[in-house]
Design goal:
- It comes from Aquibacillus salsiterrae.
- InterPro entries: AKR, AKR5G, Aldo/ket_reductase_CS, NAD(P)_OxRdtase_dom_sf, NADP_OxRdtase_dom.
- Pfam families: Aldo_ket_red.
- Keywords: NADP, Oxidoreductase.
- This is Aldo/keto reductase.
- This protein has 274 residues and is of the alpha/beta class.
- The protein has one domain: Alpha-Beta Barrel (TIM Barrel).
- Helices cover 38% and strands 14% of the residues.
- It is built from ten helices and ten strands.
- It has an eight-stranded parallel beta sheet with strand order 3-4-5-6-7-8-9-10.
- Helix 2 links the parallel strand 4 and strand 5.
- Helix 3 packs across helix 4.
- The radius of gyration is 18 Å and the shape is globular.
- The termini are far apart.
Length: 274
């Protein structure tokens, strides 16, 4: 087990189980150096979005890393004001141009914009058929969004990226995705470091001689969740990746499960200001 350990999407494409998220990293030196250092450490999965406005820096770091393109898994997403069939086609092309890539490994509908996500997803199916996206999926979709989408698709989403951490375990969405063979990815896996001082996490950190953040990432890893913690600092990137030399017991996994409060750091998909 290492940073190159993968999960298999339902179309056979391998997605690295641990990646680097780049939300709120400024385009230019910030995101460039963060992606470059992550790739040097051994990360092979980079997650961006048109909304982050840093695809250019991500693409430049990938090119300058010297690592063959096919060894790096790149995700980007279509933003809410770019949705709709024709708009999504333009948005996708613009993302490819900013990234400087011929294809992406995973392209996601960023949020379930009411009345638009189905036609948006139809455009994604075209990118997939044209081999411009090796996999397609959604983000922030709840079971009712997925049920609605699945009535009308040719190609089932391969992934659903949702806010997920010990205070927001999203059990219902995870179970729905498992039933439909859709991989779950966690954004904000550390909940913006808001409760790393939780006594349960602290006692487990002491027990395993790890940090609370490492306990959370390991819990996600053992829960079959693809995880994309964000950090611009190489030391923190290394720390986040240092989760492969220990294993939480079943009892300790349940302790972390027990922290759930259905507490979000970001908006609820049904209450988002679309």
């Amino acid at each position: 087990m290492s940073l190159t350990t993968t999960a298999t999407l339902h179309n056979g494409v391998q997605i690295p189980r641990l990646g680097l998220g780049v939300y709120k990293m400024e385009d230019g030196t910030d995101v460039y150096h963060a992606v470059l250092s992550a790739l040097e450490i051994g990360y092979r999965h980079i997650d961006t979005a048109s909304f982050y406005q840093n695809e250019e820096g991500v693409g430049r770091a990938i090119r300058d890393s010297g690592i063959p393109r096919e060894e790096i898994f790149v995700t980007t997403k279509v933003w809410n004001d770019e949705q709709g069939y024709e708009n999504t086609k333009k948005a996708f092309q613009a993302s490819l141009e900013r990234l400087g890539l011929d294809y992406v490994d995973l392209y996601l509908v960023h949020w379930p914009v009411p009345g638009k996500y189905k036609e948006t997803y139809k455009a994604l199916e075209e990118f997939y058929k044209a081999k411009k996206a090796r996999a397609i999926g959604v983000s922030n979709f709840l079971p009712h969004h997925l049920e609605d989408l699945l009535t009308d698709v040719e190609i089932k989403p391969m992934a659903n990226q949702i806010e997920l951490h010990p205070q927001l375990t999203q059990t219902e969405t995870r179970e729905f995705c498992k039933k439909h063979d859709i991989i779950v990815e966690a954004w904000s896996p550390l909940a913006k470091a808001r409760y790393l001082d939780d006594p349960v996490l602290q006692s487990l950190a002491e027990k395993y001689n790890k940090t609370a953040a490492q306990i959370i990432i390991r819990w996600e890893y053992q829960s079959d969740i693809v995880t994309i913690p964000k950090s611009v600092k190489p030391t923190r990137q290394k720390e986040n990746a240092d989760i492969f030399d220990f294993e939480l017991t079943e009892e300790d996994m349940k302790k972390v499960d027990g922290l759930n409060q259905d507490k979000r750091t970001g908006p609820h998909p049904d209450e988002f200001n679309y």
